[in-house]
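Notebook, p. 212. Picked up where the previous page left off. The plan for this session was modest: take the two constructs that came back from the sequencing core last week, fold each one, and keep the raw output in the notebook itself so nobody has to go hunting through shared drives later. Recording the first one now, exactly as returned: residue sequence, then the structure token string.
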Amino acid sequence: MKRKNHKIESPDYSRVIIANNLDSFIFAKLGCSQRELSLTLGRPATITEIAETINAQPSQIREYLNAFRQPVSLDLRVGEERDTQLQEILPDQSISPEESIVQELFQEDLNNWLGLLTPIQREVIMLRFGFGNERKLTTKQVAQQLNIKPAKVNHIQQQAIKLLRHEQDQLKDYWVC
């Protein structure tokens, strides 16, 4: 079997060469199998299910799918009249310098605010409300992580909140109404 190379040139003139041993028949068979399974199962098919359908190894399916993943240009024209670029409708994931400064100041004030608490109170509040890792934990999860009873977590949380309410003016500027 002859090795086929696909050359892709990007706007910045860099080149990516994707070498593969696939022919269009295998790719079409893979696509059909994937669509049929999705319709039958009512969800996207897993790589294992696709592999079983076309009598291939899951590693081969993964390789096939990666080889034919095609990049899409942000300059691609979309819409009925092709008057809008794709990059115009995609959300901007970056934050502005102003937002960055506000986040930095908020973090500094939050750390000062939490500094008023005892270490165990600070840990409970941070875990319960997702400060630091952005994942809020339930009372039961916090209790398991700190190896204490859930009732104790609730008690510590209530004490900490009571204490912080007296100092709430410090963070009022950041509250969104």
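Okay, moving on. Second construct, recorded in the same format:
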Amino acid sequence: GGGGDYPKFRITQPAQISATAGGSVILTCTLSGDGPNGKVIWKKGSGGEERLFYTRSPGRGEQSDSRASFVKDSDRDKSIQITDLATEDSGTYYCVKFKGDDKELRRGNGSRLSVAEKNKPQILLSNLPKVRLHLHLLSYSWKPRRVRGTNPPRKETL
């Protein structure tokens, strides 16, 4: 609905973001092209359900996550920061532009946020094989090569 309005209006957000429980993360959302007046909110989708995640001014009955806030909140930048992350915060976050207060005009493609447990260094683990291989190659290439013919001839004892 309303997709034909404002054909040059775009919402750009990164496809994937990784973070760690207990830390914070910034979900980037950039608006470009001419768009109407109207608020921008963030929705979170997980397990086939979607709900309001963040809005600057929640209406009656709306629940906005208190750990989230706009970073700049300029006309073009609607990025939010989420603090005190938990693994349950994993999901897909949509930056949604409204036309006026109640009509959804367009949304970004969604940023898939993966929040890892603090004590599971997944990123390091995935790099381990490469590191090990690299060290192996290094040690291999530094082995002193025995060149044939340079050893002094053994004196044969009679």
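Notes on construct two before I forget. The chain has a mean pLDDT of 85.
Flagging for discussion at group meeting.
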